[in-house]
Amino acid sequence: MAVADVTYSKGRLSAIQMTQWDESGDWVVGDTYLLDDDGGLLKVARVTYNFSLGITQDRSFRIRNGKAVMERSASRATRTGEPTEDLSGDDVPDVAVVVNSRSFPFWRIIRDRHEEVLLKGRVCTGGTGQ
Question: Do 28 and 60 meet the contact criterion of CB atoms below 8 Å apart?
Fold first, then answer.
């Protein structure tokens, strides 16, 4: 399941915040994508909450040549904030970092309803927008 918010600055799309979670409630992944003036993805800040392990992981990525290059990773105990080992293997949700803005499942809504979003401040849809 997922929900997304988009931010416009000076009439152009500047950021996308996307939150995804599993139905069991074991994890949540929150991504903040920053875009360049042409709508290309520049970098991603990702926070992963693994509730079953009680670990929060912060990662940052740069988007280069169509790939997400991790620049930083730090994990901590969600309740205490104490540093922990990074999540790995099956403990990391299988949620890919989007490297092309047109790959977002809601890209057509952003493209086709841009003016409506700017006018009303929001567009709601029950589908993927495709």
Answer: no
